């Protein structure tokens, strides 16, 4: 178990910069999710950490020791990739014991470790099963057990759950997180699924175009996104154009939000507010008013779409708070200051 430090790590493929000067400190025992849209450089960064790709610049350190030039097989990392790459001609136990066997571990110790790992991934007694007779979720667990066989310093996973159906994926997210907490192993997972990142991570690293846009705990990323890119990528949000009045207060749709202050020098900005934070009321004189365009009743929640200040704002309510409106009605829209995040445009 170890901590990882990335110092100015970059990767160029010809004229394309896939990873651009990434600096990150991952304390021992942290669960990190690298999150971002397709092509933002997540996999390339993970492959450099794994030693499968040489950085074009920068350094990688484990517990302060430089591992930049160290070969993959000498890094002692456990890896699970999207394809899983289980050996089809070996049974479950043989797959898990593979790394132990090539290290010359005694047969009885291999057996003990396989049983221990199968218990850990909730597959006791499955050692003799052929891998092609397993379900997707079971295969996933075998791949995880195999990667953990030699007690790796770092556990690296690239989209490990993407082949599973939605329900199983959610169950496996919880399982993976619980397993990681039990073992206390520093884990880095690449995903493009923000729910997955929110479920599992201590530290979410949002990447865009090869850069880290924000690295923070999930709730901080959700509540205090660093910019519009992060705000729009994590969960859904409303983004409204803001201007600044002479006292520095935010103005949206001609209405002053008295408790939302724009920093000096920032005359135009955007306001991010989550749908569950938008309060709907009867229209009030001088307050922000909009027109309901659509209501979507999802059973547990109701989404109200409102045209306001030149954009569409979504408000999410519970059935108990259900606004008594239909499409076409006017409605008061309250944006509580404590839920408003001011972002540079
Ligand atoms: P995805 O979620 O689609 O897997 P990603 O965020 O993991 O995307 P990367 O696979 O790291 O993105 O790719 C980042 C950029 O680097 C992309 O533009 C990709 O085309 C490019 N790239 C990746 N590997 C190579 C390579 N071996 N040669 C050339 N370009 C590459």
Describe this structure in words.
Keywords: ATP-binding, Nucleotide-binding, Transport. The protein has 345 residues and is α+β, with helices and mostly antiparallel strands. Helix content is 24%, strand content 35%. The longest helix has 18 residues, at 166-183. The model has no long low-confidence stretch (mean pLDDT 91). The two termini are 41 Å apart. The chain folds into two domains: 4-228, P-loop containing nucleotide triphosphate hydrolases (Rossmann fold), CATH 3.40.50.300; 237-343, Beta Barrel (OB fold (Dihydrolipoamide Acetyltransferase, E2P)), CATH 2.40.50. Helix 2 packs across helix 3 (107-120), helix 2 (92-102) packs parallel to helix 4 (136-148) and helix 3 (107-120) crosses helix 4. A hairpin with a 2-residue loop joins strand 9 and strand 10. Adenosine-5'-triphosphate (ATP) is lined by residues 13, 16, 18, 36, 38-44, 192. Adenosine-5'-triphosphate (ATP) binds at residues 13, 16, 18, 36, 38-44, 192.
**Total number of distinct structural domains:** 2
CATH class of the largest domain: Alpha Beta
Give the DSSP E fraction (strand runs of 2 or more residues).
Answer: 25-35%
Total strand count, please?
20
Fourth CATH level, the homologous superfamily of the largest domain: P-loop containing nucleotide triphosphate hydrolases
The topology string of helices and strands comes to EEEHEEEHHHEHEHEEHHEEEEEEEEEE
Give the number of helices.
Answer: 8
The side-by-side strand order for the widest beta sheet comes to: 6-7-8-3-9-10
- Summarize the main sheet: 6 strands, mixed
The quaternary structure here is single chain
How far is the first residue's CA from the last residue's CA? Answer: 41 Å
Please give the radius of gyration in angstroms.
Answer: 25 Å
The second-level CATH architecture of the largest domain is 3-Layer(aba) Sandwich
């Amino acid at each position: 178990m170890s901590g990882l430090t990335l110092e100015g790590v970059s990767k160029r493929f010809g004229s394309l910069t896939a990873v651009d000067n990434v600096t990150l400190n991952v304390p021992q025992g942290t669960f990190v999710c690298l999150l971002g849209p397709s092509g933002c450089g997540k996999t390339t960064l993970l492959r450099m950490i794994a030693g499968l790709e040489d950085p074009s610049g920068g350094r990688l350190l484990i517990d302060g020791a430089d591992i930049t030039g160290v070969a993959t097989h000498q890094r002692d990392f456990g890896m699970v990739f999207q394809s899983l790459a289980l050996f089809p001609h070996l049974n479950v136990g043989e797959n898990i014991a593979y790394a132990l066997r090539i290290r010359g571990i005694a047969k009885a110790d291999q057996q003990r470790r396989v049983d221990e790992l199968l218990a850990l991934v909730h597959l006791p007694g499955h050692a003799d099963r052929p891998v092609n007779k397993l379900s997707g979720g079971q295969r996933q667990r075998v791949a995880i057990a195999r990667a953990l066989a030699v007690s790796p310093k770092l556990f690296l996973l690239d989209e490990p759950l993407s082949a599973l159906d939605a329900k199983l994926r959610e169950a496996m997210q919880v399982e993976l997180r619980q397993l990681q907490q039990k073992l206390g192993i520093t884990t880095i997972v690449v995903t493009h699924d923000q729910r997955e990142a929110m479920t599992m991570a201590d530290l979410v690293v949002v990447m865009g175009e090869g850069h880290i846009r924000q690295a923070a705990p999930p709730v901080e990323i959700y509540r205090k996104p660093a910019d519009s890119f992060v705000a729009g990528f994590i969960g859904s949000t409303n983004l409204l154009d803001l201007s600044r009045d002479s006292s520095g207060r935010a103005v949206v749709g001609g209405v002053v939000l008295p408790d939302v202050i724009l920093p000096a020098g920032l005359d135009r900005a955007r306001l991010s507010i989550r749908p569950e934070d938008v309060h709907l009321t009867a229209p009030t004189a001088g307050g922000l008013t909009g027109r309901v365009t659509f209501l979507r009743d999802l059973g547990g929640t109701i989404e109200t779409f409102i045209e306001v200040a030149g954009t569409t704002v979504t408000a999410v309510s519970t059935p108990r708070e259900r606004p008594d409106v239909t499409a076409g009605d006017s409605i008061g829209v309250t944006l509580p200051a404590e839920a408003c995040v001011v972002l540079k445009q």
